[in-house]
Amino acid sequence: TATDGTATSVYGNTITGNAGGGIKFMRTPQGPVCSNTMSGNTGGNAVGTYGSSYDPTGVCPQ
Which domain of life does the protein's organism represent (predicted)? Predict the structure, then answer.
């Protein structure tokens, strides 16, 4: 449906060593994507069509 893959929250996780990138963003809008510990993700921590719109290691809003 039009909302499949949207409004997903991703926070407080440790995501490391992924060959395809840390989190792949293919649809928007998403829920909070923040305060994740990430390293060693080939291609970056945020990848996919909308990857540049998200900072998964940024601080979550209060």
Answer: Bacteria
Please report the DSSP string for 1-62 in residue order: -TTTT-S--EES-EEE--TT-SEE--SS--S-EE--EEE--TT-SEESTTGGG--TTSPPP-
Dist. CA 31–CA 17, nearest whole Å: 24
User: pTM for this one?
Assistant: 0.90
Could you give the C-alpha distances from 19 to 33, 43, 60, in angstroms and in order? Answer: 20, 8, 26
Encode pLDDT of 1-51 as tens digits.
888 999 999 999 999 999 999 999 999 999 999 999 999 999 999 999 999
